[in-house]
Amino acid sequence: MNEKPSAPATERNRDAILEVLREELSEISSVLEIGSGTGQHAVFFGASMPWLDWQTSDRSVNHAGISAWITESAVSNVRPPLDLDVQQAPKLPNTYAAVFSANTAHIMSFAAVTCMFAIVGRVLRSGGIFCLYGPFKLDGNFTSSSNEAFDSSLRQQDPQMGIRDLESLQELGQDNGLEMLRRYAMPANNMLVVWKKLG
Ligand SMILES: C[S@@+](CC[C@H](N)C(=O)[O-])C[C@H]1O[C@@H](n2cnc3c(N)ncnc32)[C@H](O)[C@@H]1O
Predict the structure, then answer these.
(1) β-bridge partners, 141
(2) How many domains does the chain have?
(3) Which residue out of 108, 113, 158, 160 has the highest number of ligand 1 atoms within 8 Å of its CB and is therefore the one to mutate?
(4) Nearest to 124 by CA among 152, 97, 159
(5) What is the C-alpha to C-alpha distance for residues 82 and 16, in angstroms, rounded to an integer?
(6) Three-class HEC string of the chain
(7) Does 3 fall in a domain?
(8) Bridge partner list, 164
(9) Centroid of ligand 1 to alpha carbon of 68 (angstroms)
């Protein structure tokens, strides 16, 4: 691949996400990222938090781009992508101290989001945390008109996509031994939600 893929949104949201992750991941060693996309977040967060061992992953179609970003950035703590489609029930270590995923829950079908939570519940060690960033609904309501418009454009592209209700994700967490700890309001009507794997 000659040219690295680029998702301009990652450059807009990365500093605000980093501010939260620096706190949430300060005592953490290993992170699995689900749906690394272009790989831009991974190399930025890896370089900014050198104490982390950051494992990228995504469906194989995105691997060349993620690897290109890792190679060019020369970060030593970001690993090449694992082939991880959450609906394929992959075999993964169950020793991660954290899982991070950004802008995936509204792109995946709800069935895939359900699989993602099952995987998170399996791969996290006891006390590990799951940080999920993106737009969410609260009590079935959109938090902004721009999110509502975004949701309908997603559903027009694919009726399986759409902004998820945080309460339904809380239930998925409970089903998989994950307790919702806190949520951060982020710029552009996004949130970063943190779950903890119970002992
Ligand atoms: C909007 S992109 C977000 C990428 C990146 N996290 C970011 O914030 O720029 C959605 C990502 O979800 C991934 N994804 C969608 N369905 C998936 C699945 N079933 N398993 C794993 N990843 C999936 C896509 O491949 C893509 O990388």
Answers:
(1) 138
(2) 1
(3) 108
(4) 97
(5) 26
(6) CCCCCCCHHHHHHHHHHHHHHHHHCCCCCEEEEECCCCCHHHHHHHHHCCCCEEEEEECHHHHHHHHHHHHHHCCCCEEEEEECCHHHCCCCCCCEEEEEEECCCCCCCHHHHHHHHHHHHHHEEEEEEEEEEECEEECCECCCHHHHHHHHHHHHHCCCCCCEEHHHHHHHHHHCCEEEEEEEEEHHHEEEEEEEECC
(7) no
(8) 136
(9) 17
Return the best residue to mutate from 104, 114, 163 for the ligand 1 pocket (most ligand atoms within 8 A of CB). 104
pTM of structure: 0.98
**Among residues 183, 28, 43, which one has the least CA distance to residue 99?**
28
Q: Which domain holds residue 172?
A: 8-197
pLDDT tens figures, 48-74:
999 999 999 999 999 999 999 999 999
What pLDDT does residue 3 have? 82
Q: How far is the CA of 53 from the centre of ligand 1 (A)?
A: 20
Is the residue at 1 inside a domain? no
